[in-house]
Amino acid sequence: MKQILLPISAAVILSCSALSASAGDFTIGAGGSVFKSPYKDFKDDSAPLLFVEYQGEDLSVGVEGISYRVLGNDESPLSLYATLASAGEGFDSNDSKFFSGMSDRDMSVDLGMTAVYQIGQGAVSGSLLHDVSDTHKGFVADVNYSQGFDIAGQVYLTPKAGIIYMNEDYADYYFGVRSSEATASRAAYTADAAFNPYVGVEMMVPLGESWQIVSSASYVWLGDEIENSSIVERDNAWGATLGLAYTF
Fold first, then answer.
1. Distance CA 122, CA 248 (A)
2. SS (H, E, C) the chain
3. 46-55 and 25-36 strand pairing
4. Tens digits of per-residue pLDDT, 6-16?
5. CATH number of the domain that residue 204 is part of
6. Is the pLDDT assigned to residue 64 strictly greater than 50?
7. Which domain, by its residues, includes 33?
8. Residue 175 domain-assigned?
9. What is the pLDDT of residue 22?
10. What would the mean pLDDT of 27-47 be, rounded to a whole number?
11. Is residue 1 one of the residues assigned to a domain?
12. Are strands 59-62 and 110-119 parallel, antiparallel or unpaired?
C-alpha cells in the first residue's frame, strides 16, 4: 500500500532523481518519514528512510520501482513507460491490536504502464498497475497533474494533485475483514472499489553541485468504501519525509 496510497504509510516517496538527476546518475540518500495511517491504533508513525536510485536514458530504478521508457524521449511531449512496482505492501497482524487474529496482508508485485504528457511547465501523468504476484489479484490506477517551479533559484517545488482508483479486489484485500476474522469489536466487511483524491508537494534544495535536501508531503482523502471498514478510523491519511541526498 505504501507505493500507490502514498501518504497512508511510511514511504512517502522522495523523488529526488526526478528533480535533480541526469541520465546515468546515481542518487543515494537517508532521512526519515512521519505519517498517519488510517488503520485503528496503528503502532508506528515514523520510520527511517534509506534510498538508492538510478536515472538512465530510458531506465530508472528507485524506491518507486523500475520503469523503462518504451515511447518518447526527453524532447517529446508524450512518454510511455513499462513499470514494475509494489502497489500494496500490506500489514502484519501485530501492527495494531485491531489486527489480532487477522491474516497478514502481503506485499504485492505489480506490472503496468505509466504515461506522462508534458503541458507547458507541467505534466499530466497516469499509471495502471496490475498484481502479477497473485496477492490481491486486483489493480490500481493513478492520474495526477504536477508542475515544478523554483523560488529565487534556491528552492525547487513540485506541487501535485490527483486521484487514485482501487478496484474491489485491491480494496477488499487491504481494507476488508473476512468472516473468519470477525469479532465482537471487528465486524466483517467487504470493500468495494474506491476513489481517493490527494494532494502533495515535493521540494529540493541544492547544496552545491552534488548534495541536496529533499522532502515531500502528501495528503489523501479516503473513499467511503475504505473509511467504512471496521479496521479503519479515519477518512484521511497523510505523510511527510525529509532527507539528504547525494548524486554522482
1. 27
2. CCCCCHHHCCCCCCCHHHHHCCCCEEEEEEEEEEEECCECCCCCCEEEEEEEEEECCCEEEECCEEEEEEECCCCCCEEEEEEEECCCCCECCCCCHHHCCCCCECCCCEEEEEEEEEECCEEEEEEEEEECCCCCCCEEEEEEEEECEEECCCEEEEEEEEEEEECHHHHHHHHCECHHHCCCCCCCECCCCEEEEEEEEEEEEEECCCEEEEEEEEEEECCHHHHCCCCECCCEEEEEEEEEEEEC
3. antiparallel
4. 334 333 333 33
5. 2.40.160.40
6. yes
7. 6-247
8. yes
9. 60
10. 89
11. no
12. unpaired
Determine the average pLDDT of the residues in 89-113.
Answer: 92
Q: Name which of 241, 209, 247 is nearest 14 in CA terms.
A: 241
pLDDT at residue number 1: 40
Model confidence at 45, pLDDT cuts 50, 70, 90, reads: confident
Mean pLDDT rounded to a whole number for the chain:
88
Which three cell numbers mark 222?
A: 479516503
106: Cβ contacts below 8 Å, ≥ 6 apart: 90, 135
Number of domains present in the structure of the chain: 1
